[in-house]
Amino acid sequence: MRKLLEFLLFLALVPAFVRSVDPPLNYDVLGLIVFKADVKDPESKLVSWNEDDDNPCNWVGVRCNPRTNRVAELVLDGFSLSGRVGRGLLQLKFIRKLSLSKNNFTGTINPSLAQLDNLRIVDLSDNNFSGPIPNELFQQCSSLRVVSFARNNLSGEIPQSLSSCSTLTAVNFSSNQLSGSLPSGIWSLNGLRWLDLSDNLLEGEIPRGIEGSLPDSMQKLTMCTSLSLRGNSFVGEVPTWIGEIRNLQTLDLSGNRFSGQIPDSLGNLQSLEVLNLSGNGFSGSLPESMIHCKALYALDFSGNSLTGNFPAWIFGLDMQVPMLPENGPSGKIKDHSPSSVQPSFYNLHLLDLSDNAFSGEIPGNIGLLSNVQYLNMSRNSLVGGIPESIGELKTINVLDLSDNLLNGSIPSDIGGTVSLKELILEKNFLAGKIPIQIANCSSLTSLILSRNNLSGPIPVAIANLTNLQTVDLSLNNLTGTLPKQLANLPHLLLFNVSHNHLQGELPAGGIFNTISPSSVSDNPSLCGSIVHRSCPGVLPKPIVLNPNSSSDSPGVLSSSSNLRHKRIILSISALIAIGAAALIALGVIAVTVLNLQFRASTSHSAAALTLSGGDDFSHSPATDANSGKLVMFSGDPDFSAGAHALLNKDCELGRGGFGAVYQTFLRDGRPVAIKKLTVSSLVKSQDDFEREIKKLGKIRHQNLVALEGYYWTPSLQLLIYEFVSGGSLYKHLHEKAGGNSLSWHERFNIILGTAKSLAHLHRMNVIHYNLKSSNVLIDSSGEPKVGDFGLARLLPMLDRYVLSSKIQSALGYMAPEFACRTVKITEKCDVYGFGVLILEVVTGKRPVEYMEDDVVVLCDMVRGALEEGRVEECVDGRLGGNFPAEEAIPVMKLGLVCTSQVPSNRPDMAEVVNILELIRCPSEGQEELG
Ligand SMILES: *[C@@H]1O[C@H](CO)[C@@H](O)[C@H](O)[C@H]1NC(C)=O
Ligand SMILES: *[C@@H]1O[C@H](CO)[C@@H](O)[C@H](O)[C@H]1NC(C)=O
Ligand SMILES: *[C@@H]1O[C@H](CO)[C@@H](O)[C@H](O)[C@H]1NC(C)=O
Ligand SMILES: *[C@@H]1O[C@H](CO)[C@@H](O)[C@H](O)[C@H]1NC(C)=O
Ligand SMILES: *[C@@H]1O[C@H](CO)[C@@H](O)[C@H](O)[C@H]1NC(C)=O
Ligand SMILES: *[C@@H]1O[C@H](CO)[C@@H](O)[C@H](O)[C@H]1NC(C)=O
């Protein structure tokens, strides 16, 4: 095969030799096989091309003239071919149509294509051809009709020879890198119907044709139906003769630097359907002659400097029609009855007049544009009200009147625009209420009314608009409460009501779980955790003080009204400080009481355990039946021998909601951690206690601190845990001084290990209830081990009040449902705590940080940063930028999802583990090697 191809190639390069071969080869087969040899065909589209065939007429993409069996058409559109177009095609002497569109061909366009005398259509669009368009191509063109080189990478000037190729009807050079000016004779191409030169780098003025004899050359162009010079750098005025191209249906001059007046002669273009003059420097007013362009369908004048009164003629107000008497003395334009006036542009679907300097009022009969779908008049200087007839625009999808000087109210007739998807009226002076009829616009996805003077309540009916995605009502004077039903809108992504006068409680659920505080800010009477303002009758969520403490304790929040008043006056940070003081006081009392109790019990049970120190501990009667019960799950009951250090204060490891923890050693030298429960008065009966503890003892997982045993007396309970040497995550994150902070890899590993441990607990139907960074220990190899799990089971009942008071040290980790009596507490409360922990690990910040006069809640901060697109800045600065953003950002997003206000919106821990494993970059292992 390879040999044969090389031979054929050789033949192709020596045509004289080919002619002498006997029997004669089929030149088309030869040419196509040579062509095929040059291209890459990854999808084997050309597999049917076999050089042993007599002719190529049955090959894919090939059509022959049935009389001569010579190739007439080669159409290989979208075959994923790449490589260069070699000389092989030059053998196809009778080809009429060559179409290689939508491939990946590279290289230059071969000038020799001009040798193919019969070629009528060449379509090389959507490839990667580069270099100039060869001048030869059009020099002796005898049959070329259609040329498209659109969407390639061609550069250089448009060849002058183009003007001489008088057979051309369609030229499409759009989306290349062509530069320079238009060839001067281009308007003499009298057969040209489509000329698309858009999105190039062309410049200069539109050539005047042959100066002085304009009409002659122009009349030749009358066949042209489509002229696009979009997206170049043409300058100067649009020549008047453009109005002579009578068949013009599409005129697109957008995105150039044309200036001056829009020529009156456009009014001659009675077939004109699409006129796009946007993004130029046109000035002056719109020519009234355009009222004659009755076929217009899309009209875009946006982004110019057009001035003058609003072009009322667009709506059929022929200035010749005498004003009706009821128009009033001011001469203000009022409605004509629809029967008396035909709209000029009955067909108009798109009208964009935005970003100009039009003044005056919107004509009252705007409703006559009964087929309009897109109407944009934003960023002008329009005054007056929004006409009621707007409700007659039954087909409108987008109505944008923003950034004008409109006043009055939003007419209730807006309810008639039943197809409306986007209503944008921001930055005007609209007053009055938001009409409830807006609920009839059931397709509405965007409602942008910000920066007006709207007052009154937000209509509940808005909650019926289930397609809503964006609602911006900020910077108005809205009052009343936020309808709870808004939380049910399933697609809502943005909801901004900041800077109004709304009051009452923020709804829960839906968008309100993830809303950023800035979206509801500056509504002084709005309350709820997001705005850090407690609602009357609702305890502030992060501060739940012990209900059992004495009532004269300074931090207690009693429900008596004078104290509630006091609470409102006190700043949150003051409250926290008082609360902390009360806690410490309580702790001291509890320890003292326990000590006293214990001393009492030791005196008659002779238990040798002591709380105050090792000195008064002498020998080991722990096996004495009266002294209490010691159980080691591992079957090693000889625990007492090493007990001399037991509960020695010097060995205290830390304190938590359920008690202090001490380090000691078993007789075999193995270290263990002993937790002395300080909740003894709350603990269940011995039987219940032992049953629960045994259950917890069975739970083993490499990321859980193993519970090894327990010690029970009625007044003292000890839990014996595996000892983990590396200290708590809290210490690693918040107390370690110096540059020795956790690396990203270590942090990710901690997050993942913690997630696995919780997933395991939940599989065993155990809720942790008390997840926080001080309960996550790090072992010597950097693996996280979660401790303190399931201890709430030891409490006589799962009372959320007791729970929240026991877990109050875990400020910021507590799921909101703890504060809500009607929501059942499930394992999803651990997911919440885990979400907070994720954010804590990634940012290195505590869940709640107290500033002088401010409380920063970590998840709100990250959520806000995410919305502002700068979430990367939240990552712990101690990492010094040494982290993969493609891991850190999704991990933070996961943390936010886990901290959803509504439990059912949080993923379960098994899902979390899966997600984390997906997030972890596959390249990480390689990085470690390096
Ligand atoms: C062209 O090549 C590029 C990169 O080589 C590829 O992404 C693209 O899909 C190809 N396009 C076609 C039409 O084959
Ligand atoms: C097009 O070709 C140029 C080289 O001529 C190459 O650098 C570029 O990647 C190609 N583009 C595509 C989309 O294949
Ligand atoms: C166009 O060509 C230039 C240089 O040949 C190349 O760098 C660039 O990637 C090409 N552009 C496209 C879109 O292929
Ligand atoms: C020119 O070609 C581009 C790309 O194939 C196409 O989108 C455009 O509609 C064509 N222009 C005309 C006037 O047909
Ligand atoms: C909103 O929907 C509810 C139930 O579908 C219906 O009862 C109510 O009338 C609707 N409100 C408006 C203003 O359409
Ligand atoms: C807002 O509305 C109140 C009455 O509801 C009115 O007193 C006040 O002047 C309004 N403020 C503005 C800025 O319009």
Tell me what you see in this structure.
By secondary structure, the protein is an alpha/beta fold. It contains 15 helices and 45 strands. Strand 38 (about 660-665) and strand 39 form a beta hairpin. Helix 1 (about 1-15) crosses helix 3 and helix 9 (about 745-765) runs antiparallel to helix 11. The longest helix has about 35 residues, at about 570-605. The two termini are about 45 Å apart. One 2-acetamido-2-deoxy-beta-D-glucopyranose binds next to loops.
What descriptive keywords fit this protein?
single chain; 930 residues; alpha/beta; Leucine-rich repeat, LRR (right-handed beta-alpha superhelix); eight-stranded parallel β-sheet; disordered C terminus; binds 2-acetamido-2-deoxy-beta-D-glucopyranose; repeat; membrane; transmembrane
The number of helices is 15
Distinct small-molecule ligands in the complex: 2-acetamido-2-deoxy-beta-D-glucopyranose
Unreliably modeled segments: 1-23, 211-216, 317-340, 538-626, 640-646, 924-930
Number of strands: 45
CATH C-level of the largest domain: Mainly Alpha
